[in-house]
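Teaching assistant's notes for section 4

Start the section by putting this record on the projector. Ask students to predict, before seeing the second block, whether Glycosyl transferase will look compact or extended. Collect guesses on the board.
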Amino acid sequence: MSAGVDVVVVTYNSRTHLPGAAAAVRALGEVTSVTVFDNASVDDTPALARTLAWGAPTDVVASARNLGFGAACNAAVRSVADPAPYVLLLNPDASVPEGGLARLVADLDADPALGCVGARLTRPSGEPVSSARYFPTWRSVAARRAQDVEHRGALVEADWVCGALMLWRREAFDGVGGFADAYFLYYEDTDICRRAADLGWRTAVDGRVHATHDQGHGLRTPAHLRRHSRRSRRRYALRWLGWRGALAVAVADAAELAGASLRAIGLRR
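Reveal the predicted structure now:
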């Protein structure tokens, strides 16, 4: 590996996943530092994080309040005293295989215009989950359909990659000002990649790197997370898609709320 990597793990009631997360980070090798930033967990996540071996000098930050994913990542990245050229943002329920980080770093080393790279993600069962997508349009927002980028087992350009696993060139991350704090959860990864693109940075997904992400942990998305998703979708659409985006969000929200009402009375699964 030709350059150092700072690893950032944002946690929230993540005690169950922490031992696996620490083992995964420890196996990466050549990590410069690890920052675990906890968003006001109530399950003693910070205490457990301090007992684990992460494979590099580790700082555990316990926030008194939940800042949201993007703001927590920003705070963690800023807290690194001696920044490395690259920063890996990694969910506690995601892991990179042995040799995977070295390949992602090599991708950035080889292309100075590449600001961010992600990996091919699956659940632990092997079921594919969203890895990289095209930017939303007003039509896709209204239809509530996202278009995935087909990586074909190679390094291919994408509009944005999943925030569960992002390797950023530190210069690019700092240059766009990190994530927009206004997104508490969801769409922050889409927004930052769009802002990076506006500054000339490219994003890619490396389909040769197969990482796992236990997305949703096999459970139906809770109502409060669906509310966060709708709020972030609305914020993104108003910022980037104009009046058509505003209308598209109204259509999408109405469809989702109607579906929730039908599920509540047992007419839809």
